[in-house]
Amino acid sequence: MDVPYWLEDPTPARTNGKLDGRVDVAIVGAGVTGCAAALRLAEAGLRVRVHDARSVASGASGRNGGFALRGGAARYDVARETYGAERAAAYWRWTEKALDRIAELAGDALQRPGSYRLAGDEEEREGILLEYEALREDGHNAEWLDDVPGGAAGRFHGAIFHPRDGSIQPARFVRRLATRATAAGAEIRENDRVEDLEALEADRVLVATDGYGHGLVRELTDLVWPTRGQVIASEPLDSVLYDRPHYARQGFDYWQQLPDGRILLGGFRDVSILDELTDVEETTPAIQSSLESFLHELAGREVAVTHRWAGIFGLTQDMLPLVGAVPGRDGRVWVAGGYSGHGNVLGFACGELVADAMLGRDAPHLELLDPARFSD
Ligand SMILES: Cc1cc2nc3c(=O)[nH]c(=O)nc-3n(C[C@H](O)[C@H](O)[C@H](O)COP(=O)(O)OP(=O)(O)OC[C@H]3O[C@@H](n4cnc5c(N)ncnc54)[C@H](O)[C@@H]3O)c2cc1C
Fold first, then answer.
1. Which end of the chain is more exposed for a tag (fewer CB within 10 A), N or C?
2. 3-class state of residue 201 by DSSP
C-alpha cells in the first residue's frame, strides 16, 4: 500500500550506456532536476553520469501530488513585494515557458485542464483576491470565480482559475526524461548512493537531491530543510467530481481526480507541522486519518483508500530554490533544489537553468536563486 500510485506505471525501456572513467559532470539524484540537467548537458556534448540511491523518480518526483503549476511557492502579490515587481513577473513568465516546454516533452504524462486555487475562508479570499489582481495587472492569465463547478461547489469562498496549469503523471514524465538523457549519451546509475562528493570521478558535481541527501553538502544543511508530505489515493469513483487540480488553505490541502476516477489527495501537514520537518519517508496515523476524513467529504461518501505514501521535499527560508555554484567550492560543486513543494515545473526549469549556467550559457534568474544569497 505504501508504493506511490505514480510508480506503478510501467517503466519504459531505456538503453543505458556505460561511460568509462572520469566524466565532465556527475549528478547526484535522478528526479526531475537531475534528469532535466542530464538531458541538457548530454545534448551539449558533455560526458554526464547520474547517480541515484534508489531509481529514477523514486524520490519526490514519483511521490508528489501531480500538480504542474506555474509560478513560485509564494503568492504572486507577495513575490512582487519580496523580490520586486519586475523580477517576480519575469520569474512567473519563465515558469509558464517551462510548463510549455514540459508539454512538448511529456506526451500523455501531462494534461492541461487549468487549476483552482481556492479560498478556505474569508481571510484567504482577501489574500487570493490580491494575488488575482496582481496577476491581472501584470498581464498573466487568470480568472476570478466566486464559486467553482463540480464537487467543490458551494464549499469555498472564491477561487482563482489558472487556465494554463496542468496535471502531470510525474514518474512517467521523469522516466521519459531519463530515457531521452541516456539516448543523448548520459549514464544513469541506479542503486548507487553517493556518500562523498569528493570521491566522484568528475570535474564538476551537481547535487539534485531537493529534500533528500540532507548533509551531503555541509554548507546547505541549514539552507534546505527536509520536509515530509503525505498523500493518499482512493479507489476509482464512477463520476467526475474534480476535473482539474484543486488546492486550498495556502496549499496545505491539494487534490485532483485522476483519469481512472481515483481522488488523489495530499496535505494536512499543519496537523503536526513540526513532526513533518523530517526526512523519514513514512506515513503517520495523525495525518493519514485527517486525509481520510477529508477524502470522504470530497467524495460525499466513504470510499476505500488504495494507496498511501510519504515523500520528502526541500523547504527554503525565502521559498525560492537554490540554483548555482556552491560558494567556496571553486566552481566544482553545484546545486539545484529547495523548491518548497513546487518542484514539478520549477525542478525541470532549474535543472535546465543550472545546466545552462554550467555550460557558460546565458542563465537568467541565476542571481535571484544564487545559493550565495544566504552567505554573510
Ligand atoms: C508529498 C509531496 C507532494 C508534492 N506535490 C507537489 C505538486 O503537486 N506539485 C509540485 O510542483 N511539486 C510537488 N512536490 C514537490 C516536488 O515533488 C519536488 O520538489 C520535486 O519532485 C523535486 O525533484 P528533484 O529531482 O529535485 O528531487 P527528487 O525527485 O526528490 O529526487 C532526489 C533524488 O536524489 C536521490 N538521492 C538523495 N540522496 C542521494 C545520495 N546520497 N546519493 C544518490 N542519490 C541520492 C534520491 O534517491 C532521489 O531519487 C511535492 C513533494 C512531496 C514530497
1. C
2. coil
Ligand 1 pocket check: which of 102, 162, 212, 322 to mutate, most ligand atoms within 8 Å of Cβ?
Answer: 212
Gap from CA of 193 to ligand 1 centroid (Å) = 15
| Burial class of residue 172, CB neighbours in 10 A (0-12, 13-18, 19+) | buried
One domain, residues 76 and 208: yes
Cell 485542464 locates to 113
Domain finish residue from 315, 340, 365: 315
Could you give the CA distance from residue 244 to residue 223 in angstroms, rounded to a whole number? 33
User: What mean pLDDT is predicted for residues 7-34?
Assistant: 93
pLDDT band at 155; cut points 50, 70, 90: very high
- The helix/strand/coil state of 307 is strand
Ligand 1, atom 33: closest residue by C-alpha: 29
| pLDDT value at 180 more than 90 | yes
- Residue with more model confidence, 64 or 214: 64
- Given a cut of 80, whether residue 1 has pLDDT beyond it is no
Domain boundary among 298, 315, 332: 315
Distance 18 CA to ligand 1 centre (A): 25
Q: Is the pLDDT of residue 159 over 90?
A: yes
Report the run of H or E that residue 49 belongs to, with start and end. strand 48-51
Please, are residues 331 and 358 in contact by the beta-carbon 8 Å criterion? no
Q: Are residues 106 and 188 in the same domain?
A: yes
* Mean of per-residue pLDDT scores for the chain: 96
Which residue has the least CA distance to atom 18 on ligand 1? 343
CB 231 within 8 A of CB 62: no
- Residue 161, classed as helix, strand or coil, is strand
Which residues, including other chains, have CB under 8 Å from residue 224's CB and lie 6 or more apart? Answer: 210, 211, 214, 314, 315, 316, 322, 337, 338
Residue 361, number of CB atoms within 10 A of its CB: 11
User: What is the CATH number for 266?
Assistant: 3.30.9.10
313 Cα: distance to centroid of ligand 1 (angstroms):
6
